[in-house]
């Protein structure tokens, strides 16, 4: 199984959605099509 690499920009935007916009991790992970465990 290959490891998926995310760009720094992608990671920062995901964090911003959770911390600044107070969105639930489950919602952000679904929007970004990644596992909630990845966040």
Automatic annotation (TrEMBL):
<dbReference type="InterPro" id="IPR002514">
    <property type="entry name" value="Transposase_8"/>
</dbReference>
<protein>
    <submittedName>
        <fullName>Transposase</fullName>
    </submittedName>
</protein>
<dbReference type="InterPro" id="IPR010921">
    <property type="entry name" value="Trp_repressor/repl_initiator"/>
</dbReference>
<dbReference type="GO" id="GO:0006313">
    <property type="term" value="P:DNA transposition"/>
</dbReference>
<dbReference type="GO" id="GO:0004803">
    <property type="term" value="F:transposase activity"/>
</dbReference>
<dbReference type="Pfam" id="PF01527">
    <property type="entry name" value="HTH_Tnp_1"/>
</dbReference>
<dbReference type="GO" id="GO:0043565">
    <property type="term" value="F:sequence-specific DNA binding"/>
</dbReference>
